[in-house]
Each structure stands twice: as structure tokens, then as C-alpha cells.
Automatic annotation (TrEMBL):
Endpoints of the signal sequence: none
Organism: Faecalibacterium prausnitzii
Protein name, entry field: Peptidase
GO molecular function, one term: metalloendopeptidase activity
One Pfam assignment: Peptidase_M23
Domain M23ase beta-sheet core stretches: 164-260
Biased composition, class Low complexity, residue ranges: 96-114, 124-136
Alphabetical list of CDD domains matching this protein: M23_peptidase (cd12797)
Bias type Polar residues, positions: 74-85
């Protein structure tokens, strides 16, 4: 018994320390197991969420639609309230090679006339002012390059100035036959100053039809011709030679110039 007391007295501190260590180890093991179990429960709760659970602050009746199930929004297509019928279509653009040129001038500049840029005016033919006027025909069948300008000034590319254009320029190939526009008598067949070769025919109404740029005339002054009779071939108009190949037609009643398009029946 004395030996046990001596042993306990000598080893008591060591035994107490050992007991503390064992108790601490047991407490640590218990704490680790407790934390592990709690973490396991939390992880299980995250992996298997309750479908009926709601987030704080969110109405329980609110249905959340997965992103992949969002319906695709489409722009509604509504027909026009009013539709327009019988809309005229624009004329097709002119083909290459048919470009318009500047209007050439043939008369003296008029100080009271207005000024406009040259353009290819496709003037529609106007009916004759008098049913008693003799019938006439277009001398060539080309498009209108430059129309009659009246008192308006247009730019002459050849002469480099602004003046009135007292006739109509018809596009025509060089060497093409030129028919007479009216029945009448030839009053000029030859050169006429800056206009070059000219054939002029006077009709029964006293109007003189001047065709400028008629080369190789087949008629002479004093001849009687019929509408459509060949007067010569297309040549060059000297004072309008910078323009596209054409025939210049003027109509004069005394000293006044008339619009050739308005003189044709």
C-alpha cells in the first residue's frame, strides 16, 4: 500500500497530464465528428433542394421560368393599313451611249430671257395651232438631244457662251438619210455660215423648215419636194460640233422662230 502511495505521489503529475491529454483528444474527436455531420447535412441539403422552398423576400406564388424555356420574342408583322394601287412605274434608265448633251444655241442672246443649265429635253409633240397648216413629219427618228428653249438661255459647249436654242437637235448617225419634214419648195441647199451645210424647205403656210447639218444635198434651190423625200445625209453642224452627232431643225415664220415640235401635225 505504501508502494502504491509512493507511486501515485511520484507519478501523479504525469498521470494527470496524461488524463488531460486523453480528455482533450476525445473532445477534439467529438468536435470534428460534430462539424463533419453538420457539413454533410448542409451539403445534402444543397444537392437536393426542396422544390417548395422559396427565397427570402420572394413571393411564394412567383413562378421562375428556366432560361432555356424563355419564349422567343418575335416582331409582329402587321400589314399596311392603306395600300396604293396603280402606281406608275418609272421609265428605265437610258442605255449607255445615249447620254444627253448640252443645248446648243442658234439665235442671239436675249437679255430678258431666263438662264438655265443645258439639258436633254424630251419635248412631247404639240398639236398644230391651225388645222389648215400643211402636214409635216419628223425629219429623223433619233431621240431629242436639246429642245427648243424659247427665250431661255442655254450653254453652247462649242461656242462657250449662253444663248437661246431656236430649234430641236435630233440624235442621228453621220451618213444617215435625211427626209424632208414637209411638202414644199427648196429655198436653200448649201453652206450657211457657221451652220455648215443647210437645206431649207418652205411649206404652203409660208414657214421655212431649216435642216442644219445636211451633207451631200440631193436637191437644189427651186426644187419641189414631198414630205419624206430624201434631202441628203447627216453631216456636221459647225456651231454645235462639240455635241453628239445630230441634225438641227428650225422653223421660221418671217423673222420669228417657232417651236418645231408645236408645228408638226
Amino acid at each position: 500500500m505504501e508502494q502504491l502511495k509512493r507511486f501515485l505521489r511520484d507519478k501523479g503529475f504525469a498521470l494527470a497530464l496524461l488524463a488531460c491529454l486523453v480528455a482533450a483528444a476525445a473532445a477534439g474527436v467529438w468536435a470534428v465528428r460534430t462539424v463533419r455531420d453538420e457539413l454533410k447535412e448542409n451539403l445534402d441539403g444543397l444537392n437536393e433542394p426542396d422544390s417548395t422552398s422559396t427565397l427570402p423576400g420572394i413571393d411564394e406564388d412567383l413562378t421562375i421560368i428556366p432560361e432555356e424555356e424563355y419564349p422567343e420574342w418575335q416582331q409582329p408583322t402587321t400589314p399596311a393599313a392603306n395600300s396604293v394601287a396603280n402606281v406608275p412605274k418609272a421609265d428605265p434608265a437610258p442605255k449607255a451611249g445615249s447620254s444627253t448633251s448640252s443645248a446648243a444655241s442658234s439665235g442671239q442672246a436675249s437679255g430678258s430671257g431666263s438662264v438655265r443649265e443645258p439639258s436633254a429635253l424630251q419635248g412631247a409633240s404639240s398639236p398644230a395651232s391651225s388645222s389648215a397648216a400643211p402636214a409635216s413629219t419628223q425629219p429623223v427618228f433619233g431621240r431629242v438631244l436639246n429642245a427648243y428653249s424659247g427665250d431661255e438661255l442655254v450653254y453652247n459647249k462649242t461656242l462657250g457662251d449662253w444663248r437661246t436654242h431656236n430649234g430641236i437637235d435630233y440624235a442621228a448617225r453621220e451618213g444617215e438619210a435625211v427626209p424632208s419634214p414637209v411638202d414644199g419648195s427648196v429655198v436653200l441647199a448649201g453652206a450657211d455660215g457657221s451652220w455648215g451645210p443647210v437645206v431649207a424647205v418652205k411649206d404652203s403656210a409660208g414657214r421655212v423648215w431649216r435642216l442644219c447639218g445636211v451633207a451631200s444635198p440631193k436637191v437644189k434651190e427651186g426644187d419641189t419636194v414631198s414630205a419624206g423625200q430624201v434631202l441628203g445625209t447627216v453631216g456636221s453642224v459647225s456651231c454645235e460640233c462639240a455635241e453628239e452627232s445630230h441634225l438641227h431643225l428650225e422653223v421660221k415664220q418671217g423673222d420669228s422662230y417657232l417651236d418645231p415640235a408645236a408645228c408638226r401635225n
